[in-house]
Write the structure tokens for this entry.
Amino acid sequence: MATIKHKDQRVGIFVDAQNMYHSARNLYKAKVNFKEILRVAISGRQLIRAVIYVIKTESGEEQKFFGALEKQGFEVKEKDLQIFIGGMKKEIGMWG
């Protein structure tokens, strides 16, 4: 089924960065080009909002990456990484 696209369409894009990153790495041994994903998803249409959901760690080492995503046109929504007793790490809860 072909997607109909025209310049008057308004588009909202919502990306789960961690799932895309880990899927690309584990399934294809590749990296995700988020800028290209945004470009292809917009396809000449009117972008209303591009939101990317990310997990931040205690170290904060990913802040440069988050800044790069913002420069590419994404609105970055951050959530803390939850660390459980025993050391298991996971993002939990709802996005607000």
User: Anything to note?
Assistant: The longest strand covers residues 46-56. Strands lie at 10-16, 46-56, 75-80, 82-83, 89-90. The two ends are 33 Å apart (CA to CA).
